[in-house]
Amino acid sequence: MQDEIYIKRCIELAKKALGNTYPNPMVGSVIVHNGKIIGEGYHHREGENHAEINAINSVEDKSLIPESTIYVSLEPCAHFGKTPPCALKIVELGFKKVVIGAMDSHDKVNGKGKKIIQEAGIEVVSGILEDECIDLNKRFFTYHEKKRPFIVLKWAQSGDGFMDRDFKPTQISNSLTKQYIHELRNSEHAILIGTMTAFRDNPSLTTREITGRNPVRILIDIDLKVPTNYNIYNNEAETLVFNSLKNTQEGNIRFIKTERENFIEKLIRKLYDLQIQSIIVEGGSLVLQQFINANLWDEALIIKNENLTVENGTKAPSFVHKYSEVRQFRDNVIEFHKNIFL
Question: Would residue 132 show up in a list of annotated catalytic residues for this protein?
Answer without folding.
Answer: no
